[in-house]
Amino acid sequence: METSEEIKSIEEGSKKILQEEKVRLVRIINRLGRVIVERYQVGITSLLHDKEDRMISMQLALEIFLRDEFDEKLGPIDYVLSKRKKISLISIPIGKYLVLVSAEPNADVNAIVEKTNETFRNLLN
After folding, report:
1. Are 25 and 89 in contact (CB under 8 A)?
2. Model pTM score
3. Cα–Cα separations (whole angstroms), residue 3 to 6, 9, 10, 14, 89
4. What does the pLDDT look like over 22-55, one tens digit per residue?
5. In Å, what is the CA distance from 34 to each residue of 20, 25, 60, 93, 103?
6. Where in the sequence is the domain holding 57, given as residue range(s)?
7. In this structure, what is the dihedral angle of CA atoms 15, 20, 22, 28, given to the nearest 10 degrees?
8. What total of structural domains would you count in the chain?
9. Tens digit of pLDDT for each residue in 67-88?
């Protein structure tokens, strides 16, 4: 369970990621698929209903964390990109968390991943 101080730090980190061009949403998810922090860009709302949002968070967390059994042979996952017509979903495992970033389809994914790793590397490990 995260302390209020940890959550505050994670929220501050999320705000930094939202400064990246074309980022719509930053969501921090634990290994059980529970959303710890969620921050939207000003003026942006989810394209999904609440239940769908929760479901996609759980699915992405399970997908990433179940794959870690191959880390020893293949190396750890840097990120997983799901590029769709309306958005790009970038799943970045950091420590025991998954950072989910939703961005415009033409966003610079590498820049977002780099900024996310820089911001959360020490915070979430």
Report:
1. no
2. 0.90
3. 5, 10, 11, 16, 27
4. 999 999 998 888 899 999 998 888 888 888 888 8
5. 24, 16, 11, 14, 21
6. 4-124
7. -40
8. 1
9. 888 888 999 999 999 999 999 9
